[in-house]
Amino acid sequence: MKRPVQDEHELLAAWQSGDEVAGEALFERYYEGLAFFFASKAGEDARDLIQRTFLLLLENQGRVRDSGNLHCYLYGIARNVLYQYYRGKRRNRDRFVPEEESFEDLVPSASALIGQAEEAQLLLQALRRIPLESQVILELYFWEQMTAKEIGDVLEVPEGTARTRIRRAKQLLEKQLELLANSPHLLESTLSDLDGWAKKLRAAWTPPQ
């Protein structure tokens, strides 16, 4: 009897060879995380960006094998797809700078999730006001539970540089929380359990079908 393919790299290789079941298994494994990654920044275009990400993953199988970590490589692709998406919305595509521009700069009319605790609302608003690159870093840190080394792999920078960027992103987030909080109690409640509120915010979100 043929052994079921479970390893991610084996699934990808099988998909590359035409095994649609393996492709579906890989898609199901990562769909929800990627859906959240894109929907929180691209809204109704998220589904198309997910498809682009998986297509690029399929086309770059050899590079994935060399990278060793499929999870990080996939989110590296997703990050590039997201930035290409925003560049495509600009007349001058070279002017999009993810290290400086925030989600609120790019999509000022976007609304936050409603019906959630004030702390979760505050966290989401603050995330959307920091530079997009910092938002991506913190989402990988909080929601994908990536280590500094793994985030460095996504960003294609050394682990030490990734640690510095994570620390800087947290500082930017805290500054926005301070500016947005309508009371010292709300600020303290949010800051005292950032990881917990991030998880609650993630759990409350439903991926697009």
Characterization of the model:
InterPro entries: RNA_pol_sigma-70-like (IPR039425), RNA_pol_sigma-70_dom (IPR014284), RNA_pol_sigma70_r2 (IPR007627), RNA_pol_sigma70_r4_t2 (IPR013249), RNA_pol_sigma_r2 (IPR013325), RNA_pol_sigma_r3/r4-like (IPR013324), WH-like_DNA-bd_sf (IPR036388). Belongs to the sigma-70 factor family. ECF subfamily. Keywords: DNA-binding, Sigma factor, Transcription, Transcription regulation. This is RNA polymerase, sigma subunit, ECF family. Residues 121-173 form the RNA polymerase sigma factor 70 region 4 type domain. This protein is mainly α and 209 residues long. It folds into two domains: 1-96, Rna Polymerase Sigma Factor, Chain: A (Orthogonal Bundle), CATH 1.10.1740.10; 97-209, no CATH class. 69% of the residues lie in helices and 0% in strands. The chain is built from twelve helices and no strands. Helix 7 packs across helix 10, helix 7 crosses helix 11 and helix 8 (132-142) packs across helix 10 (159-180). The longest helix has 23 residues, at 20-42.
